[in-house]
Amino acid sequence: MGRSLVFSSNIPLKFSQKLNSVSPLNHKLCQPFPYKTRQISLGASLKFPSFNANQGRTLRVRAVVSSGTSYTKVGATSTGPIPPAQLIEVVETAAKTGAQVVMDAVNQPRNIFYKGLTDLVTETDKKSEAAILDVVRENFPDHLILGEEGGIIGDSLSDYLWCIDPLDGTTNFAHGYPSFAVSVGVLFRGNPAAAAVVEFVGGPMCWNTRTFTATAGGGAFCNGQKIQASKTDLVEQSLLVTGFGYQHDDPWATNMELFKEFTDVSRGVRRLGAAAVDMCHVALGVVEAYWEYHLKPWDMAAGVLIVEEAGGAVTCMDGGKFCVFDRSVLVSNGALHGKLLDRIAPATEKLKAKGIDFSLWYKPDNYQTDL
Asked: DSSP for 19-75?
């Protein structure tokens, strides 16, 4: 992959036949990538047959109501001057382009580097981000970009901010463990407007993918099929997910206690290691909730919109209004949100009382928002 990757919005994506393996999970929602770099043909318009931008369009509301409690919507009220269909087309193209880079490398030896003692980054992270950036800059050269590997690029006066995680779950990828994804979310004046997450499922020698998408007010989809969060309203009948960062600090210790508490009262708490994947699983209805401290905007920008558009709820872990620059997140099916906050919010308030910093972070200077 030493060559330069250049992409254009007038290039169709072509995928080869399905992989010669049993499709994991629900075969109707799984979408394979070929192992080889996709074939490119020029001169045709870009099309995604599985995505209908108008499907499931509903009148925009500003709150999720569950068990008598309203939670403020985190999604943008609109996609701004760019039509939803145009914006999601580029977002999905960018995510799939990065995912193709990951698929090309998934069964190959890894070149691993360290950002911290156990915080990994691979050459694949960097190449995926470079490919995604090419797509974004080809289509929207004046937009602002915040990438996990490359930092801030572009015009800080833009109303649009792209939050890119080129390989969410790098440690899982490095070990060949099937919980990682490419995540691309775009904000309009600080609020999520469009999102795509390409999740890798299966395992070594039988990798497959499925693509989650959402636009503000347009519903959430997996490979073009509309999805909905679960209706479970009892903690004891729920399957939950959480995550732990690389810093073993007070929030880490607090969440370890929450992990123990919810393990005792639910059907189980999973820790998969990829925030975007965890949130998409809430949207898909296979788990009821996910929470974590210390996430970054690129971890959350796509996933929170997909959950919300699937009928779920999103807040900070103290129950307050959420934005992607916050340092904690709780997403749920909505029906369980209040019951989860009964335990999670007091624990978070104790951290705040100890002086733990929960102020906004990673917000680009001069980026104007409606927050």
From this structure: PSSPPPS-GGG-B---SSPPP---SS----TT--TTTT-----SEEEETTEEEE--S
Q: What is the structure's pLDDT at 109?
A: 72
As a dihedral over the C-alpha atoms of residue 128, residue 364, residue 211, residue 316, rounded to 10 degrees, the angle is 130
Cα separation, 68 vs 339, whole angstroms: 12
What is the token pair recorded at 95? Answer: 């995510």
Band of pLDDT at residue 120, cut at 50, 70 and 90:
low
| pLDDT tens per residue across span 18-33 | 333 333 334 344 544 4
DSSP, residue by residue, 95-123: HHHHHHHHHHHTTSPP-EEESSSS-EEEH
Q: What is the pLDDT of residues 242-266, one digit of tens each?
A: 999 888 999 999 999 999 999 999 9
d(CA 220, CA 213): 6
- Which run of H or E residues covers position 300? helix 297-309
Give the distance between the most distant pair of CA atoms in the chain.
Answer: 60
Cα-based torsion angle of the residue sequence 101, 106, 108, 109 in order, rounded to the nearest 10 degrees:
100
**Dihedral of CA 37/119/209/143: which sign?**
negative
Phi-psi map region of 333: left, alpha, beta (phi>0 left; psi -120 to 50 alpha): alpha
Token pair recorded at residue 68: 């008598």
Pairing of strands 151-153, 160-168: unpaired
Residue 131 clears pLDDT 70, i.e. is over it: yes
Which pLDDT tens digit goes with each residue over 148-191?
Answer: 888 999 999 999 999 999 999 999 999 999 999 999 999 999 99
As a whole number of angstroms, the distance between CA 355 and CA 351 comes to 7
Mean pLDDT, range 355-370, rounded to an integer = 95
Mean pLDDT of 352-357: 97
Residues 181 and 212: beta-carbon distance below 8 Å: no
C-alpha–C-alpha distance, residues 348 and 53, integer Å: 38
